[in-house]
Backbone:
């Protein structure tokens, strides 16, 4: 299979035969956590791939063998205020919407930790393929915030409302086998050869009619949700941002950076 690799600062873009475009987030030292710069690169890149007719399927994955995306960048978010929090959430929404509404299939190849914004980007894709070491979760309430990249809206669609609430309220981690059982992941493959298995599946899809795929995705999306989508996401962004004025957000995120347990005050 021939490939054509391009590198942005925080992304590795790898085009393979049969229209398979891999977008690999590459901030290995931060376990591919999403900072503003990476989100902006993703937004720009996905806008290009949405229009590029040589791209037939997009695979989103993480660089290295440990993480897909370990969430939004906590070190960057720690000192944000409300308006910066709202802006950051909206940027995450822009990227997630590009994955969700791209006129071609998007697959999340979850190869390790997919926490917070990581699970949120995965569930913005059309479906998830997980490696055996994948770990999902929404740990935000343990940081004094709520999910801000769309999980309040999208997670219930994958796993149902009570399960989504249970996962968001508890922040507990979900391993690949459970993710498969509860409908988060469509397939689970061994770590060794994982990406090749995902590409193999993407190739099967990419050879179908791109026009029928586009129409199918648009119809499924329209019938299943989008009424008032922007207003729903805006409500999430506002609430997410408001929490950046709270004591618990500063304490929760400082505690992570300082590698200690947070002492929340409910303020
Ligand atoms: N933001 C910034 N840096 C992060 C990060 C994140 N989300 N996750 C990991 N890192 C950094 C760590 O700070 C550490 O950096 P140093 O080496 O400089 O100390 C490095 O990545 C490796 O991490 P650990 O040493 O913690 O690795 P570990 O194997 O012990 O644990 C982990 C791995 C369980 C994923 C742990 O790193 C972790 O819990 N990360 C945070 C997960 C999280 O809470 N994500 C949600 C963020 S909030 C969010 O996403 C909001 C939203 O909805 C938009």
Residues:
């Amino acid at each position: 299979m021939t490939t054509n690799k391009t590198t942005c600062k925080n992304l590795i873009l790898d085009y393979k035969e049969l229209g398979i475009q891999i977008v690999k987030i590459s901030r290995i030292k931060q376990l591919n956590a999403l900072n503003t710069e990476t989100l902006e690169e993703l937004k720009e890149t996905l806008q290009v791939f949405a229009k590029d007719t040589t791209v037939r399927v997009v695979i989103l994955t993480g660089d290295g063998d440990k993480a897909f995306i370990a969430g939004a960048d906590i070190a960057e978010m720690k000192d944000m205020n409300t308006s910066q929090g709202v802006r950051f959430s909206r940027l995450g929404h822009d990227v997630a919407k590009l994955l969700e509404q791209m006129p071609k299939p998007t697959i999340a190849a979850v190869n390790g930790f997919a926490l917070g914004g990581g699970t949120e980007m995965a569930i913005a894709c059309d479906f998830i393929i997980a490696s055996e070491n994948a770990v999902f979760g929404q740990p935000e309430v343990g940081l004094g915030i709520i999910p801000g990249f769309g999980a309040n809206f999208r997670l219930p669609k994958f796993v149902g409302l009570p399960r989504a609430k249970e996962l968001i309220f508890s922040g507990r981690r979900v391993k690949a086998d459970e993710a498969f059982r509860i409908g988060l992941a469509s397939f689970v493959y061994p770590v060794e050869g994982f990406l090749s298995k995902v590409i193999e599946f993407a190739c099967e899809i990419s050879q179908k009619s791109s026009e029928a795929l586009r129409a199918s995705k648009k119809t499924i999306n329209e019938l299943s949700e989008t009424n008032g989508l922007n207003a729903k996401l805006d409500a999430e962004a506002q609430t997410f941002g408001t929490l950046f004025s709270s004591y618990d957000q500063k304490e929760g995120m400082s505690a992570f950076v300082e590698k200690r347990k947070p002492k929340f005050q409910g303020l």
